[in-house]
Design a protein that fits this description.
The structure holds two protein chains of two kinds. Chain A is α/β, with parallel strands linked by helices. Chain A contains eight helices and seven strands. Chain A starts with a strand and ends with a helix. Helices cover 32% and strands 18% of the residues of chain B. Classes of the chains: A alpha/beta, B alpha/beta.
Chain lengths: 168, 426
């Protein structure tokens, strides 16, 4: 994936990414307000494939699915120096690629064009010639990511349950 | 190598003898609790799991609790419509523990008040402050929407075993200094990612001397340091709290003396004064003296951090026979119907109303910025809640100062940020 960088600072919290007042609304409505709490022009600027680059503790705060408005607004991945635990879980479970890479988070600039290999965790910035390697998740988590999130695993379990019941 | 209490709980729930930090497990859990908005956000993944499979059922309706908190009772047609769906969902899936409006409360309060979470449990909810329930010695973990949907559907949750850091507090707290000041002070020291992806295990004589209400407050804000959860090893006080509430057997566990910790933080808090987290982060913490005098528009006493009976009692004690300042509104919201009734019976509610407070229906109130006291542009609020990021309680320019119930009550009376000790003559 190739996209332009939108830079944010440390501790971007879920109220900035997905303000609580839209929690009861449809996903379409929620995506129109992505990042509204920190940049009210974000959804006007963001193009499909674009990348969010942020500092430490991205997605801190609430357990809400703050990755959804980013996904729906066209963000292809988030690169950060670190992620809050719940944002990481949410993104992994529902298929928004996230890369933990303090170096890239520090060096990439607003508007940089970057090429990102999600599975390999490789971030290329052709303008500077820099290549970054993101930290890899444990194999267990990479398996969830490769499966496209957590739902396929649960579906298999439910199928087994249905099958066992029918055999009885 | 020994294990921490958290590692023991996670091992027991994943069919292992031992677990180590960094390992990932699929675990079973004892109970899961959902609330109006978390259930709504799990709707889509829950439906995806069962799409086309010819069935749709909760793995075990007895292990699911439904409550209403974020928008309780519904303030808008949209919320009412969403909650109508939630009630239908609960009935369709045979959830008997549905705490309808009137029996409801904040999920992180009804969970322990009604004995749904017990020592030794793995307890799951879609709510970042699920960590609150670590105060009973459970591994109480907040998960997101998809994990909640999977937990409801198949009774499993995946977890990466976190490292644990131990926070040991020594010394007797000064008058008008409480668990809230302890955790705010800690946040000021370690910052918002100081325990990122870790468990905060709270220990030491100061913690042992805290009432259960204070222990819930302490664990509640572990999330504000980035922790996966907070936990306190159970003792006689825990047992006295849970025994009359428990609906099933439980296991009292503790950490081994040779358990491995990422870090051990020790604090002597015998001289600690009231603390305030200033805008716009829970780690922007200052002693109350440094901010006393800041003019305010509103005081909120409530939220899963500080809306227990003890918190309201302290507020009443500080206010005494005084009145809320004429230029300030004091909004008090008991966290649950249980607290509300207790406070009514004791006369606590009456004294608050006499002083000029307004009382809201149990729930989260204005803390997540949805209703019953949200803040306008540039307004300033002293709040006993847990977050003060921009926009958290309303307009993005509104300023929230996080403080204890004693500090909040003193501020309501004096109409400015105030040190409870100055009012109480100490």
């Amino acid at each position: 994936m190739t996209g332009r960088v939108h830079r944010f600072g440390d501790n971007v919290d879920t109220d900035m990414i997905m303000p609580a007042r839209y929690l009861g609304h449809s996903r379409a409505e929620q995506s129109r307000h992505a990042m509204e709490g920190v940049d009210s022009d974000f959804t006007a600027k963001v193009q499909p494939g674009d990348v969010i680059v942020a500092g430490r503790n991205f997605g801190c705060g609430s357990a809400r699915p703050a990755h959804r408005p980013l996904q729906d607004a066209g963000v292809s991945c988030v690169i950060a120096a670190s992620f809050a635990n719940l944002f990481m879980r949410n993104a992994v479970n529902e298929g928004l690629p996230i890369l933990r890479c303090p170096e890239a988070a520090r060096e990439l600039r607003e508007g940089d064009l970057v090429e990102v290999d999600h599975e390999g965790g490789i971030i290329r910035c052709p303008a500077t010639g820099r290549v970054y390697q993101a930290e890899m998740f444990p194999e267990f988590i990479r398996q969830i990511i490769r499966s496209g999130g957590l739902i396929p695993y649960a579906r298999e379990k439910v199928k087994q349950r249905v099958q066992e019941r029918e055999e009885k | 190598m020994g294990m921490t209490i958290s590692e023991k709980i996670l091992a027991a729930h994943s069919g292992r003898d031992a677990v180590e930090p960094g390992e990932c497990i699929n675990a079973t859990f004892d109970m899961v609790i959902v609330q109006d908005l978390s259930l709504l956000m799990a709707k889509e993944p829950f439906e995806q799991i069962f799409d086309g499979l010819g069935e749709s059922s909760v793995f075990d309706p007895e292990k699911v609790v439904v409550t209403f908190e974020h928008e309780a009772p519904a303030p808008t047609v949209l919320a009412a419509t969403n909650q109508k769906w939630g009630r239908q969902w609960a009935r369709r899936h045979g959830i008997t523990n549905m705490l309808e409006i009137g029996r409801h409360g904040i999920q992180h309060m009804v969970s322990n008040e009604q004995g749904f979470v017990l020592p030794g449990d793995l307890f799951v909810a879609n709510g970042s402050h699920t960590c609150t329930d670590g105060a009973v010695g459970a591994f109480a973990v907040g998960v997101g929407a998809a994990s909640l949907a999977v937990a409801l559907a198949i009774g499993e949750v995946w977890l990466e075993i976190p490292e644990t850091s131990r926070f040991v507090y020594r010394g007797t707290l000064q008058p008008w200094v409480s668990a809230k000041d302890l955790i705010l002070y800690t946040l000021g020291q370690i910052r918002t990612d100081g325990a990122l992806n870790q468990v905060m295990e709270f220990a030491g004589e100061t913690v042992r001397a805290l009432p259960m209400s204070g222990r819930f407050t302490l664990c509640n804000m572990a999330k504000e340091a980035g922790a996966v959860t907070g936990i306190i090893e159970p003792d006689a006080l825990t047992e006295a709290y849970v025994r009359p509430r428990a609906r099933r057997a439980h296991r009292t566990l503790s950490s081994d003396s040779d358990a491995r910790y990422r870090a051990i933080h020790e604090y002597d808090v015998s001289a600690l004064g009231p603390q305030v987290a200033c805008p716009f982060s829970p780690d922007n913490v200052k002693p109350v003296e440094a901010v006393a005098g800041v003019p305010i528009d509103q005081v909120f006493i409530g939220s899963c951090t500080n809306s227990r009976v003890d918190d309201l009692r302290v507020a009443v004690e500080v206010i005494g026979s005084r009145k809320v300042h004429r230029d300030v509104r004091l909004i008090v919201i008991p966290g649950s119907q249980y607290v509300y009734l207790e406070a009514l019976r004791e006369g606590v509610i009456e004294r608050l109303v006499e002083a000029g407070a307004t009382i809201g229906a149990p729930g989260c109130g204005p803390c997540p910025g949805l209703h019953t006291g949200v803040l306008g542009e540039g307004e300033r609020c002293v709040s006993t809640s847990n977050r003060n990021f921009p926009g958290r309680m309303g307009h993005r320019t509104a300023e929230v100062y996080l403080a204890s119930p004693a500090t909040a009550a003193a501020s309501a009376v004096l109409g400015r940020l105030a040190d409870p000790r100055e009012m109480m003559g100490r």
